[in-house]
């Protein structure tokens, strides 16, 4: 963990400018090719969701700007960030979840599957966002449809700083599978180039 010296930070003016806005989030929606990742998951009897979620977490942790958080008016660069995701239930509701990051898929997936079972056997929203560690990143999945745009709810808090990533149902074109991905972040902490770095690394991970 590292405290950023805001006065000497090359993003000082960017941070101050966007932090004055009621909603400083920005982002975009794109696609990543996921054919090989899907095939690998199915060949090994692995949940495709768990597989690509882990690849996303690896990519997130490769971009420092996505590990920055605002804590008590300080900018903190965390060594790593963990995962949070909405988990669907059989009754059509969902609950929030939290799981620790590991670069080892088996370790990551073990914790994720335990959390999925816990949420599916609970009611309401599950774990409260108020008690989640700030060094996590929010994921959600819309598995029923692909999409080309997305709108998130917001409480218009300029200190809200946890990035949001959303996945949709993959589409198939010319025999290849494409996963829609939306990513949003506090513009005072990250720019388009940093979100693009995440997307590029995510797609690279999916191709391994």
UniProtKB/TrEMBL annotation:
Query: Keyword Transferase on this protein?
Result: yes
**Any Pfam family the entry gives:** CAT
Q: Which SUPFAM superfamilies match?
A: CoA-dependent acyltransferases
For whether the record's keyword set contains Signal, the answer is: no
Record-linked Gene3D superfamilies: Chloramphenicol acetyltransferase-like domain
Active site at which residues?
187 (proton acceptor)
Which GO MF terms are attached to this record?
A: chloramphenicol O-acetyltransferase activity
Q: Which domain of life is it from?
A: Bacteria
Question: Per UniProt, which keywords does this protein have?
Answer: Acyltransferase, Transferase
Cited InterPro entries: CAT-like_dom_sf (IPR023213), Cmp_AcTrfase (IPR001707)
Enzyme Commission code(s) on record: 2.3.1.28
Q: What's the protein here called? A: Chloramphenicol O-acetyltransferase type A
What's the source species for this entry? Answer: Chryseobacterium indoltheticum
Q: Encoded by which gene? A: cat3_2
């Amino acid at each position: 963990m590292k405290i950023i010296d805001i006065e000497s930070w090359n993003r000082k003016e960017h941070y101050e400018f966007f932090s004055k806005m009621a909603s400083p989030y920005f982002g975009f929606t794109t696609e990543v090719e996921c054919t090989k990742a899907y095939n690998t998951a199915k060949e090994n009897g692995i949940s495709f969701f768990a597989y690509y979620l882990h690849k996303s977490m690896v990519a997130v942790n490769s971009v420092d700007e996505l590990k920055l958080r605002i804590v008590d008016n300080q900018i903190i660069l965390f060594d790593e960030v963990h995962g949070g995701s909405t988990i669907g239930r059989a009754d059509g509701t969902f609950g929030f979840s939290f799981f620790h990051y590991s670069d080892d898929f088996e370790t990551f997936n073990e914790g994720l599957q335990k959390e999925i079972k816990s949420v599916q056997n609970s009611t309401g929203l599950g774990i409260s966002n108020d008690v989640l560690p700030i060094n996590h990143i929010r994921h959600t999945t819309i598995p029923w449809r692909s999409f080309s745009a997305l709108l998130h709810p917001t409480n218009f808090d300029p200190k809200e700083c946890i990035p949001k990533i959303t996945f949709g149902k993959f589409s198939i074109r010319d025999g290849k599978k494409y996963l829609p991905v939306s990513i949003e972040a506090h513009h005072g902490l990250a720019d388009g180039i940093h979100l693009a770095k995440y997307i590029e690394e995510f797609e690279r991970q999916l191709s391994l």
